[in-house]
Amino acid sequence: MNDAAGALVKVWFALDQEEGGWPPVGGESLWAVDVGDGLVRVDNVPFFVRDLAYGDIVRTQLEGDGRPHFHERVRVRVRVRVRVRWSRTLAAGTPRRARRVRAAGCFR
Fold first, then answer.
1. The domain containing residue 28 runs over which residues?
2. Could you give the CA distance from residue 91 to residue 69 in angstroms, rounded to a whole number?
3. I need a labelling partner for 103 at 20 to 30 A (CA). Which of 9, 25, 66, 73 fits?
């Protein structure tokens, strides 16, 4: 990791593909803030990594490639990421779905 706590680092998250080839990549790198002792705070919204949100604290380990890799989630913040995949079939119900998401408190 970096010697300076508070520094931005890129953390590598390896991903397993599901049947059908999703996600279309083998991993994702996310920006995180070094908080010391191998811990970082995720500093951007993950696109492919599941069960992780902006602000979560994770433990990393330096791997042979010299990059910090995700090891485990240590602390979950109160943020929630909602993954939405659109299609023409779903588009017709968009206003109703948007109301349900707002009612769940996901928008301010």
1. 8-81
2. 37
3. 73
Inside any domain, residue 20: yes
β-bridge partners, 42: 32
In a domain, 101, yes or no: no
Domain contains 100: no
Per-residue CA distances from 89 to 39, 45, 93, 95 (Å): 42, 27, 8, 13
Q: Has this prediction a pTM greater than 0.85?
A: no
pLDDT along the chain (108 residues), means of 10: 75 92 92 95 91 92 94 79 61 70 68
pLDDT for position 21: 87
Does 30 map to a domain? yes
- 89's tokens: 């079939």
Query: How many separate domains does the chain show?
Result: 1
